[in-house]
Structures are given as structure tokens and as C-alpha cells.
Amino acid sequence: MMEAFVLVVVKPGNEEKVYNILAGEERIKEIYRVYGEYDIILRVEVENIHELDRFHDEVLRKIREIEMTETLIASSYRG
């Protein structure tokens, strides 16, 4: 299992619409509206990098109100 955090910038005034669209997606385990440079943060769980690619292509890129995303792939730093 792979975990990633996706930081989302939404066209002004469309935050609630995008939030509601994303809230029903099963790969999104947590979703938050936030203040600052980004409007929404997602915690996404997928099987592998190919599934993450599919999530970007099939979900995020189809939402016209999203201006930009930044994806951070989570890593465990166990020594």
C-alpha cells in the first residue's frame, strides 16, 4: 500500500464544489479544506505508483476547477 498527500489549489469560489466532488472518491482517505497557499489537502491510499497515476488522470485532471496540484509521496524513515 502506498500513501500520498495531494495539495490542491482551486479556482477562487469553487472550493466547496471541488471538496464535494472529491469527498466521494474511495482512494481519498482524508480530505481537509485549509487556509494558506493551498485550498484542499488529500490523504490518498493506492496500491502502487501506477494506481496513483490513474488517480491523477481519472480524478484530478478531470475537475476543471482545480488549478494546480502538488503530490507528496509518503515515506517511512525508520532507522
UniProtKB/TrEMBL annotation:
- According to the entry, every stretch annotated as the Transcription regulator AsnC/Lrp ligand binding domain falls at 6-74
Q: Which InterPro entries would you find in this protein's record?
A: Dimeric_a/b-barrel (IPR011008), Tscrpt_reg_AsnC/Lrp_C (IPR019887)
What domain of life does the native source organism fall in?
A: Archaea
In terms of Gene3D superfamilies, this protein maps to: 3.30.70.920
Protein name per the record = AsnC family transcriptional regulator
Organism taxonomic ancestry: Archaea, Methanobacteriati, Methanobacteriota, Thermococci, Thermococcales
